[in-house]
């Protein structure tokens, strides 16, 4: 692996999950819409955009708001979010696969002795299903939406991930895709790879891995 184009080697690499290493954002959008419409609510593209990378509480409140917009009584946010996570546990996370280039990077960083953390807004029970589906262990620590830390776009999750690895966030490299996640990563002081502009496969090619 050749990372000369970065200018310096990161002390650690922090990875977002949904939309960055696995393709699950479609499921969050589609199944959120299904849950809301089943409750008589209204769901639009702006709602899907809002939830990507959002904290559990923000996502739950958005679901409840969408039901209320449809003229129905506002449900308890965490209750309707629980319905959504049950669907995600059944229909999405048991079937995840790494996006192109991700495995090559995860293995290369691991073999180079660079610690890695998964930093995601997804609840821990769903993260556990995803990691079991992937099979191989890549991460030295995992920060999830179940941790007691402010959610993205607050930098808290990335600061916690760096702290658990024993490094400064400013010395880390972050891979992210969502608006909230990118804001969180940049606010942490880390170097950030926006995978919308530089997908993992392209980064892996630059590093000589593909």
What does this structure look like?
- The structure is a single chain.
- With 210 residues, this protein is an alpha/beta fold.
- It has 2 domains: 4-23 and 97-207, 3-Layer(aba) Sandwich (Rossmann fold), CATH 3.40.50.1000; 25-92, DNA polymerase, domain 1.
- Helix content is 46%, strand content 10%.
- It has 9 helices and 5 strands.
- It has helices at 25-38, 45-51, 56-69, 77-91, 102-111, 124-134, 156-165, 179-187, 200-206; strands at residues 12-15, 115-119, 141-143, 172-176, 191-194.
- A 5-stranded parallel sheet has the order 3-2-1-4-5, sandwiched between helices.
- Strand 4 (172-176), helix 8 and strand 5 form a beta-alpha-beta unit.
- Helix 1 packs across helix 2 (45-51), helix 1 (25-38) packs across helix 4 (77-91) and helix 3 crosses helix 4 (77-91).
- The radius of gyration is 17 Å and the shape is elongated.
- 45% of the residues are buried.
Secondary structural class: alpha/beta
Helix percentage range: 40-55%
List low-pLDDT spans: none
Over the alpha carbons, how many angstroms does the gyration radius reach?
17 Å
Largest sheet: 5 strands, parallel
**Which sequence of strands runs across the widest sheet?**
3-2-1-4-5
* Top-tier CATH class of the largest domain: Alpha Beta
SSE succession: EHHHHHEHEHEHEH
**Named CATH architecture of the largest domain:** 3-Layer(aba) Sandwich
CATH superfamily of the largest domain: HAD superfamily/HAD-like
Whole-number average pLDDT?
A: 96
The oligomeric state of the chains shown is: single chain
Q: Span from first to last CA?
A: 10 Å
């Amino acid at each position: 692996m050749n990372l000369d184009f970065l200018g310096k080697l990161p002390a650690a690499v922090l990875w977002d999950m949904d939309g960055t290493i696995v393709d699950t954002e479609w499921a969050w959008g589609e199944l959120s819409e299904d849950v809301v419409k089943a409750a008589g609510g209204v769901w639009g593209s702006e709602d899907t955009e809002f939830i990507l990378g959002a904290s559990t509480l923000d996502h739950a409140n958005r679901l409840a708001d969408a039901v209320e917009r449809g003229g129905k009584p506002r449900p308890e946010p965490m209750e309707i979010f629980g319905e959504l996570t049950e669907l995600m546990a059944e229909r999405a996370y048991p079937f995840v696969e790494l996006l192109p280039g991700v495995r090559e990077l995860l293995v290369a960083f691991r073999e180079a002795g660079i610690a890695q953390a998964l930093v995601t807004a997804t609840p821990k029970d769903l993260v556990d299903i995803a990691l079991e589906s992937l099979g191989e262990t890549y991460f030295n620590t995992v920060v999830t939406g179940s941790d007691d830390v402010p959610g993205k776009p607050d930098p808290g999750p990335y600061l916690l991930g760096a702290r658990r690895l024993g490094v400064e966030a400013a010395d880390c490299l972050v891979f992210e895709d969502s608006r909230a996640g990118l804001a969180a990563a940049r606010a942490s002081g880390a170097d950030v790879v926006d995978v919308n502009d530089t997908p993992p496969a392209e980064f892996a090619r630059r590093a000589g891995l593909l």
